[in-house]
Amino acid sequence: MAHSITPPRVGLTHAVVGMDGDVLSWHRSMRAAEQKIELEQRRFKRRHPSCNGYLPRSIISVPPTGTYIERIARYSTAWAAA
């Protein structure tokens, strides 16, 4: 199952994608996307200290015209450009 994602504004070239293929946020750089995931992970750990949970997130580089993304494997939670 592949679907298209397109940046909402020029300059936003990296998408943080959740386990269902939904774009959670757009960023100007790979580092900014990584920091967003790290912040989300820290908040999750703070709220649920006894949980060793993992938040499935993928970072995808997207050209200004958009791209198609698809799961990397049948039952995977990771996404990649098609």
Q: Which terms summarize this structure?
A:
single chain; 30% strand; 22% helix; 82 residues; 6 strands
What's the arrangement of secondary structure elements?
Layout lengths: L1 E4 L8 E4 L5 E5 L2 H18 L10 E4 L5 E5 L7 E3 L1
Explain this structure to me?
The chain has 82 residues and is of the alpha+beta class. The chain has one domain. It is built from one helix and six strands; from the N terminus they run βββαβββ. The strands form two sheets. Strands 1-5-6 form a three-stranded antiparallel sheet, with no helix packed on it. A three-stranded antiparallel sheet has the order 3-2-4, covered by helices on one side. The protein is flat. The N and C termini lie close together (10 Å). The mean pLDDT is 93.
- Stretches where pLDDT is under 50 for at least 5 consecutive residues are none
Order of helices and strands: EEEHEEE
Give the structural class: alpha+beta
Mean pLDDT metric: 93
What is shown here, in short?
The chain has 82 residues and is an alpha+beta fold. 22% of the residues lie in helices and 30% in strands.
